[in-house]
Amino acid sequence: MNTRILVGFLWKTFWLGGLAGLIASFFVKPEQYLNYMQPFDGMEILGLIVFFLGLGLTFATISLTGFFAYLFVHRMGQSLFKGYWSTVQVGLIIFILFDIIYFPYRSADNVELYWFILLAAALLLIGWIVAKIKAKETNKKAFIPTLFFMVVFTTVEWVPGLMVDGTDYAWLMVVPLLVSNTYQILNLHRLNFQEKKPQVQGSNGQDKKSHNKKKKK
């Protein structure tokens, strides 16, 4: 992959995560915006927009770091576990889903267990949908690695948000993480195709030119 394609990929991921965090703030923290609507204070609202956009950009950066870590872990897992790597990934997915149900429930006060079960189910469902799309666009073998990335790495990246008291910043963190991770995993193979496409066209163009020269001769 050439530098121009890589920089464009990183740049789009960065800003998608930032915008996702900003949009999420309108739903998670609406009272902060409403406080400055009556009377209207444009500078304070602009300050909030910049703050939540910056927060989303920060989480997008975490997502970028996690994605490159995933690429390294995936390669290392294939080398270490060979044909058992898929089984190991499934085991880690199950462990992480259990982890985000059991341990937060033990430390939470007055929060019902089913909320954590719904949280894990929602994360699994989103990961499952993304993995199905990835497998459809590439091959069936991509399903488990994609599900592994969406569930395990999103959860690992989300740990700081889960440790904060209250759920507001946990939601403000997970939305840009999911958007950024989804964009990265679904567009990696498309970027490879974009890189190869001009080369194929160029080679075809050269073949056609050489063919035309032969005809003229």
UniProtKB/TrEMBL annotation:
UniProt cross-references to Pfam families, sorted A to Z: KbaA
InterPro entries assigned to the protein according to its UniProt record, in alphabetical order: KinB-signalling_activ
Keyword annotations of the record: Membrane, Transmembrane, Transmembrane helix
Transmembrane parts of this sequence: 9-28, 48-72, 84-105, 111-131, 143-163, 169-188
Stretches the record annotates as Disordered: 197-217
Keyword set includes Zinc: no
Signal peptide positions on this chain: none
Protein name: KinB-signaling pathway activation protein
UniProt lineage: Bacteria, Bacillati, Bacillota, Bacilli, Bacillales
Designated gene of the protein: kbaA
